[in-house]
Each structure stands twice: as structure tokens, then as C-alpha cells.
Amino acid sequence: MPTVAPFDLSGHCIAAVFLDDIPHFALADGTIHRLDHGAKSVQAHDGLLCAALTWDGKALVTGGEDGKVVLTRSDGSTETLAEVPRKWITSVATGPQGAVAYATGRTAFVRFADGKTKSFDHPRSVEGIAFSPKGMRIAVARYNGATLHFPATDGKPAELEWAGAHTGITFSPDGNFLVTTMQENALHGWKLADGRHMRMTGYPAKVKSWSWSAKGKWLASSGAPAAIVWPFSAKDGPMGKAPVELGTRGNMMVTAVACHPGDEIVAIGYADGMILAGRIADLKEVVLRRGGKSAVTSMAWDTKGIRLAFGSEDGDCGVVDITA
């Protein structure tokens, strides 16, 4: 049976991550706590925040209602990367070559490693932002679709249309597909080579958590009484294919998912705080945590895939060691 080291905090956990294999927990009040030879914390923001892990896993980038974009390293040191006075940073993303993207209102910004910043205005508010894994390109989720920009050039952006409010966005690890969460209970995707649509519907609730498998063959998602895992190994992705359902527990909703860094295994967190690990190939399940005080909101594996950090709505956080 895996062992659970609890870490009780006070407040909603936005992101549970490992930085240099040290577990960190970013709370909605702007504090970032870490377990590094004892409990330590740093106040990264004055108020609510959103978060994104750097590509190398060595730092966390957060945006807050204080208008700041802050980088926090594994030793607790912080650096303010950008500041938009009297604005709320609503989304952040990290990209290649040290680039960081962030958004407020209708404007998305890209900050390059040399500190230079470029802005991109949109007709409607920017709801989500993501970097492509290939080349310097960002995608913005907006009302009625998504917009693709190449920040290093002044070329015309590419527009991908689909009616409805798109609230979050992600590229597939191979860069071939773009997927958004929607205000309705659905995901929507595009095959970037030809713009073909991928409708991923049937969720009883909104998708608030998703995670790509190590090699990008699967996209796991929350929003149902099981982890809904879509196949992306074929050239047309999940078009015409049914998803795998992992960890079905009656009507108990899945609230967070995290794919293992090496194996096709998904950590599945539920509304009652329980956490399972499910293997995609044979649907085998193992209990990692029996339950808690509130819904799991965020999970992340360490680089070796033997520890899982988790956070919850009420600060009921901790680390699971699967080797114990």
C-alpha cells in the first residue's frame, strides 16, 4: 500500500507540483508552500493566483490579481517577470527558450528570455493560453474559438472557429492537435494540419483538469465519474473513436488527473479526496489515497514517477510515495 505524507494547509490549492523534485503547493491566497527539510513558504502574490510549471520543472510561474507575473524557484527565491498595474493576470503559460506568456482582459503578452515583451490584442477576453511544443507559437482560447500567434514574427494570426466559450487550451505534445475546454461540458479540438474539428462531448460536468500521457498518445480529463482518456495516437486523433474510462466510482466525480511521466498510468483524484492510479492498457486500478476532507484540485508526479504531490479545495495536501 502506498504511504501518504499529509501536509495540511489553509486554503484552496491551485497547483501541486515538484520543483527540482521538491513538492510545492501554490494556494489561492498567493502563498507557495514547499516541503524542503520542513515546511517553508513564500508570499508570491497579494491575492488570488493562477499557475504554470516551467518546461524544465525547475520553477513555477504564477500570475495574480495583483497584476504580477512571478517566477518561484525550488529554493523559495522569487523574481517578478512582469507587472500590469491595476489588472488581474488571468492565465499564464511557459514555453521554450525561457519564454513566458500571460493574459489580462483582451490582451495576451509574450515575454522573451531577454526581457522583451510583445502584446497581442483580441476582440474578446483571453480565457486561456498555451505554447506549442514546436517553435515559438502560442494559442489563445477565446469566445467562439482559438487564435494562433507567432510571437517572433509580425505575421497574421491563424483563427480557428467553433461556436461557444473556450476557457482553456493545450497543444498535443507532438504539436499536431490543439484542444480547448469549453464553458459547456465538452472539449473541442482541431487537427492543425487541415483544421478538421474534433468534438469530445458527453461530460456531465465541466472539464477542469487534463493531462497528456508521456508520449502524447492519450489525453486524460476530469468532468465525469471516471477519468475520460481520449486516444491521440492515430493521425486523426480521437475522431470516430470512443475514449477509455478509468476509475469509475458510481456518481463520484473525478476532479483532477495527472499522467505518469513514464508509463501509461493516470493518477485520478475525486470530489471526496480519494486518489486512484489507473493503467490505460488493462484498466487495472490501485488506491493511492483513501479519501480526505475535500475535492482534489491538483496533482503532479516527480521526475522518477514514484511520488505524487496533491492538493485540494480546503488545503488538504500531501505527497504519496508509491514505493513504500
Topology:
Elements: E1 3-8, E2 13-19, E3 22-27, E4 31-35, E5 39-43, E6 49-53, E7 59-64, E8 68-73, E9 78-83, E10 91-94, E11 100-104, E12 107-111, E13 117-121, E14 128-131, E15 138-149, E16 158-171, E17 177-182, E18 187-191, E19 196-200, E20 210-212, E21 218-221, E22 227-231, E23 244-246, E24 254-259, E25 265-270, E26 275-279, E27 285-289, E28 296-301, E29 307-312, E30 316-321
Antiparallel strand pairs: 1-30, 2-3, 3-4, 4-5, 6-7, 7-8, 8-9, 10-11, 11-12, 12-13, 14-15, 15-16, 16-17, 17-18, 18-19, 20-21, 21-22, 22-23, 24-25, 25-26, 26-27, 28-29, 29-30
The helix count comes to 0
Query: Can you tell me the CATH topology of the domain at 1-38 and 206-324?
Result: Methylamine Dehydrogenase, Chain H
Bulk shape: globular
CATH classification class of the domain at 1-38 and 206-324: Mainly Beta
Instruction: Tell me about the largest β-sheet.
Output: 6 strands, antiparallel
According to CATH, the homologous superfamily of the domain at 1-38 and 206-324 is YVTN repeat-like/Quinoprotein amine dehydrogenase
Class from secondary-structure proportions? mainly beta
Distance between the termini: 7 Å
Rg, alpha carbons: 19 Å
Order of helices and strands: EEEEEEEEEEEEEEEEEEEEEEEEEEEEEE
The number of strands is: 30
Strand content: over 45%
How helical, in percent, are the residues? under 10%
Mean pLDDT: 95
Uncertain segments = none
Task: Please tell me the CATH architecture of the domain at 1-38 and 206-324 by its name.
Answer: 7 Propeller
Strand order of the largest sheet: 14-15-16-17-18-19
InterPro entries: Apc4-like_WD40_dom, Quinoprotein_ADH-like_sf, WD40/YVTN_repeat-like_dom_sf, WD40_rpt
Domain Anaphase-promoting complex subunit 4-like WD40: 261-322
Protein name: WD-40 repeat-containing protein
Pfam families: ANAPC4_WD40, WD40
